[in-house]
User: Fold this.
Amino acid sequence: MPKSRYLLSIGYQAIFTDMKLIVEVADKRADFVKELLDSLPFVKTKTITPQKAKFLEELKKSVAEVSLAKQGKLKLQSAREFLNEL
Assistant:
């Protein structure tokens, strides 16, 4: 089932100045959810493209790999090994 993604920006006065959430919604409910969120004065919505959503997912995976490499749980190839593959 296709899903629409919305990037929400919710302001908090006390602890957070800004919090961003990604919400996945089935396409048939997307218009309703967007209208509902837009009706809340403290929520700003922004529709993101599927390409940007894919980029964000890949970036998240990359950050996780870097974290594992720093912990020594993932062996990375050297630059020379990489260049030899080319």
Q: What stands out?
A: Strands lie at 3-10, 19-26, 43-47.
